[in-house]
Amino acid sequence: MIRVRCVNCNITRHYLPGDLAKLIGDIPFWDVDRHMRCERCKRRDLDVDILLPSASEGLRIRVRRLVEIRMVRRVIWSDEE
Ligand SMILES: [Zn+2]
């Protein structure tokens, strides 16, 4: 399990490595902070840690699961001079 803390908001979120791999690819956990932003402040001041299953079982942590990845189609217009 991967623990990501936003230094700015002081919010901690927990993710499963498999979910993060779907999102940002199979990268080493110490690189996760370079590929993620805080969902609230959108900053990259993240503190990333690995939690061992035995420790997390005792803490009864709520894990943030990935539901869906949506690719948004955005239309960009420009006026011709
Ligand atoms: Zn934040």
How far apart the termini lie comes to 53 Å
Mean pLDDT: 88
Strand count = 3
Order of helices and strands: EEHHEH
The largest sheet has its strands arranged as 2-1-3
Oligomer designation: single chain
Shape: elongated
Q: If you compute it from the alpha carbons, what radius of gyration comes out, rounded to the nearest whole angstrom?
A: 16 Å
Spans with pLDDT under 50 lasting ≥5 residues? none
Q: Could you say which small molecules are bound to this protein?
A: zinc ion
Tally of domains = 1
Helix content: 10-25%
Largest sheet: 3 strands, antiparallel
Number of H- or I-type helical stretches: 3
Roughly what fraction of the amino acids lie in strands?
A: 15-25%
Q: Supply the helix-strand structural class.
A: alpha+beta
List the helices and strands and how they pair.
Layout: E1 2-6, E2 11-15, H1 17-24, H2 32-35, E3 46-50, H3 53-59
The structure holds zinc ion.
Description:
- With 81 residues, the protein is of the alpha+beta class.
- The chain has one domain.
- It is 23% helix and 19% strand.
- It has three helices and three strands.
- A three-stranded antiparallel beta sheet has the order 2-1-3.
- It is elongated and about 65 Å long.
- The N and C termini lie far apart (53 Å).
- The relative contact order is 0.26.
- The mean pLDDT is 88.
- The site of zinc ion has 7 residues, from loops.
- The site of zinc ion (ZN) has 7 residues, from loops.
